[in-house]
Here is the input.
Amino acid sequence: MFSLNSSFSDLGVAEPLCRALKAENYEKPTPIQARAIPHLLAGRDLLGIAQTGTGKTAAFALPILQRLAARQAQPKPRAPLALILTPTRELAAQIGDSFRTYGRHLGLRQTVIFGGVGQQPQVDALVRGVHILIATPGRLLDLMNQRHVRLDAVEVFVLDEADRMLDMGFVRDVRRVVAVLPKQRQSLFFSATMPEDIGRLAGEILSDPARVEVTPAATTVELIDQRVYHVDTDKKRSLLAEVLKDKALARVIVFTRTKHGANRVTQQLEKSGVIAEAIHGNKSQTARQRALQNFRAGRARVLVATDIAARGIDIDGVTHVINYELPNVAESYVHRIGRTARAGASGVALAFCAGDERAYLRDIEKLIGRRLAVVEDHPFHAPAARQGAQPQHHQRAQQQRPHQQPGRPQQRRGGRRQGERGGFRAAV
Ligand code: AMP
Here is the structure.
């Protein structure tokens, strides 16, 4: 209904909100925003399958702010009009910041409550009356039990990161909260994954929801050919140059952990004759836009990015994602590699793993439920033994290669030499 090129105002977002977004340099809605906001402004329930980093906070915050501002409703003491339930205090604080930023021209009141800190300031804020309450489940129930807050005036309810709620053992608390919400309400349910028990919970909370999915779903991640190169940190640069000799790497995003790293890699690539652009938080908005345009138009073959800078940008036709440095948060890996398998296309994701990044690799493999195929047939292969592991580790590393992965496609299980060689060729 709305193209992904719509602006916020095309989606129906009101002017004071658009003004705040402009000040934040949000040029256009992210896919989840483009798809979810019109439904939410129309008052529908929403099932959003999306993880952090997709822009989902604004997707729910903007319609909530707009609705409450339009109604000019004044909240009674202790009776918020919108409730956002989220699993951790960090997320709660971030969501609170987002509401404050987007709603800065609206004059609505909000507060954030979570455990581990004194409750009095939270109680004081509730007594003054807030339009929007952002809470973690434990502290919310605690304050409900003490009658510092009641939920019978809630018009909009958001359950954020439902799958993490489940992992953290909060689902019973969530059900207790939902049980006392008014039946007449708008409900939004967000989860990065949708296993059966989460689907059931969604069914209990939502009524005829619009469904919007933007995460690289497990099936999409399955489509991506994922490989890891074990390489010493000081050889990564040479490995990158080697890997980029293959023209099959036509449109490549290279991820680094830091802005500094992004600059360094970009300079090295330029020196070796590869046209590359960097985007990260230290660049001006104009410089970032120019870099993206060059990359989109194919004038630059490589885009070097940090996770934060890459958020909210949408680029099609990325053939390869290279994790030059592994992310220390495993979810970021899934988010990064999802950029190479857009719209059902397959893609290739290569990870450069140094000895001190092995723990990150293990976390990633745990999260995605499979081991990455190890590419050994390259000049900079760093056997595990050289990276401070057991002396016999080299052998073990070989044994861990694709053979150990039940369910992996046949082509990647072939004989060792052939598998490696084929793997390297296909990868580069
Ligand atoms: P979230 O998934 O809500 O945690 O958002 C991830 C990051 O993307 C946050 O830092 C937001 O400030 C940023 N962001 C959200 N929407 C946009 C947008 N339309 N344009 C640019 N950045 C955005």
User: Anything to note?
Assistant: The first strand starts at residue 46 and ends at 49. The chain has a mean pLDDT of 84. The chain is about 40% helix and 15% strand.
